[in-house]
Amino acid sequence: MSKRPLRAGLIGLGAMGRHHARVLRALDGVELVAGADPAGDPHAVLGGTPLVADVESLLELRPDYVVVACPTAHHERVALALAGAGVPALIEKPLAHDVPAARRVVEAFESRGLVAGVGHIERYNPALRSMRTRLEAGELGEIFQVATRRQGPFPNRIADVGVVKDLATHDLDLTGWVTGAQYTTVAAKTAHRSGRPHEDLVTVLGELDRGVIASHLVNWLSPLKERVAIVTGERGCFVADTLTADLTFFANGSTVTEWDAVSVFRGVSEGDMTRYAIPKREPLAVEHETFRDAVEGKADAEIVTLRQGLRAVMVAEAVLESARTGATVPAGCV
């Protein structure tokens, strides 16, 4: 006798919610029972799936778990309603609009022993997953630096947070995840160039434990869409392009230089370049499969925990505090 599918609900049917709906409708072992959005279904992604107005109406349908893809400003209220009803939740990043709200969400789910995760989707990108595996295996040796660039045009869907919490949280989370290190301090500068109330450009210089230095360039001002993460270490560097899910390794050169005028300069030289052939699956589909497995109780389902999501919000607020004050700010003391 086959087991019944998990009954999933979705809150928020906007630009990101429509992709969650598409994946949920195709996900093995899961039935999308309803979508909730007071603005309706503007992208017509539900098909014949019922549409309700709010989280309370969705809970009346007794879902086994719910995906939260509404604007960040509503994450706390919706998450607390789900936790209060005993319903597991996958919450889009950032976990909440500020650190106190994120802490309340963590406590609500942890105190009830509920499965809950945060949608830091870059952790499911094939290029970054392959990079992390290789770093853990010591292929790069000691890690010196992580540099990321995440830039592109302004997404009109974003109105309640700036580029730090909406975009930079990707880089703040993936940097700690791929290196196994944590931020200790951050120094940042932000800019408001497009006339919106929130920042649309940020540069971050961070120091992590283990001596790792990080730098991040993030903006909504560039016509060039770019998603690149570069990790440099004692044996060379990995370059991950998360738009194409490509991973390339640039090795330090080992050729002896006989030209005296050049050999006096100490440092690395160019070596071999390897572009890895890696399986490429849609990160959002992998994220949903992983969360489904966690709800089913599978121990090897590596979801992004609420505490990891809280950490990203803490570092993001340290970035904003540094930009406001001009000081270097401890990353864990906001």
From TrEMBL:
Domain GFO/IDH/MocA-like oxidoreductase: 129-238
Stretches assigned to the Gfo/Idh/MocA-like oxidoreductase N-terminal domain: 7-120
Signal sequence bounds: none
Alphabetized GO MF terms: nucleotide binding
InterPro entries: Gfo/Idh/MocA-like_OxRdtase_N (IPR000683), Gfo/Idh/MocA_Oxidoreductases (IPR051450), GFO_IDH_MocA-like_dom (IPR055170), NAD(P)-bd_dom_sf (IPR036291)
Transmembrane segments: none
Any matching Pfam family: GFO_IDH_MocA_C3
Descriptive protein name: Gfo/Idh/MocA family oxidoreductase
Domain of life: Bacteria
